[in-house]
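Lab notebook: predicted structure, single chain.

Context: the supervisor wants predicted structures on file for every construct in the current expression panel, including those that have not yet been purified. This is the next one on the list. No modifications to the sequence; it matches the entry in the shared construct table.
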Amino acid sequence: MSQPLTEHRMKMKSLKAALFGNVLEFFDWTIFALFSTYIARAVFDSEDSTAALLQTLAIFAVSFVARPVGGFVFGRMADKYGRKNSLALAMIAMGLGSLLIATVPTHAVAGVIGPILLLIARIIQGLAHGGESAAAYVYVSELAPSRRRGLWSSSIFFSASVGTIAGTLLGALMTNLVSADAMQSWGWRVPFVVGSLLAAYALYLRIRSIETEIGVALVSAEGGTQTQPADAEGTRQSRGAVFVILLKLLVVVGAANVAFYTWITFAASYAISSLGMSASGAFAASLIAQLLGLGLFPAFGLLSDRVGRKPIAIFSLVGFGLFSYPFSWILSGAPMSLFAVQLVSFVFWAAIASILPCLLSESLTSTHRAVGVGVVGSLAAAIFGGTAPFLNSWLTSIDMGWVFIGYTTVVLFAGAAVVATLRETRDLDLATMDIAQSAREREDGSVTV
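Prediction complete. Output recorded below exactly as produced.
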């Protein structure tokens, strides 16, 4: 009795360690977006504010190119040497990137050196973020009880939203408590200092966490003490099958990324720079909307354990597609418009985000699960997510914002169509990928809740 209880406590402790690091990853990612206007004026030539902002957003987009590399490198590491070790290294990289941004020199002091260092910092963080998605999605999915994998999976983006909210909250507090001149001079650096300090604590937590059973089996196989890793005999996927699965998942995750970076992450920054919304009003509206939507993640995750992953994903992507043009019409310079758009957006975002980690993990066998998840997630973010803010700002600046909205609508409906072709993965066993075994366990109640 005590042994299962101890194991459960260790799993919960390890889950908290993974989630705290995930909070920090998205905190760091969000504050760059939120403080991009300040960074632009400090690091680039501020005589042309629009050009400076576009250059900053370009660096934001370029840093996404590093994410697939990070997803591959950290994913391979997770598949060979364990999920836990990969998570720890990802946190080290993220902390270093934050520290570099916090200390980057201004344009007046160092000229072109500042933008170069900023780019290096964002590439490091891009590698870390790709590594985080590679290992964290798989780690939590493998750690979870089979019948509650959707619920546990929802904690990944619940924690990501907590990180986004924390960054938004810090932005709201600083823009209200610190003068505009002070914000431009030194205030924008404070969040990155905080991020680098918290990274050290997150690393400590992750080092003390446990490895998943599948991760242990893979490490043993790599060390030559086990000839057959976690996959059951005859269940390994062919390269052709893996490629088709990855291609489909790329479209689905890409559609989710377009919606996330357009209506969740960069909506406040866009409203400030392009629609004339006050910074304090935009941050406050965004913060309240996100706080109200937090409870939706576990609700959709639990629902997916009952009805499956596909219905939830289709609801999200079709909903985002149908509301894309209405969102663009509603959003104005009034903070209440941003609140309304982000509150509705959060319903659709929570639906797809709650199931993405388990949907991706359930689509691949264990020997290439982390690298597959990492590459798909990072490529989708690079191709669709990282370019969305830049395209939106550029097309809006030339009075063609409607073209961008049309693009997002097409991508979202394409993602929903691809989901319809996927098999349902709710009943898959991650260790054996054996649907029949998992179904029998559900029927006789032998799976721990």
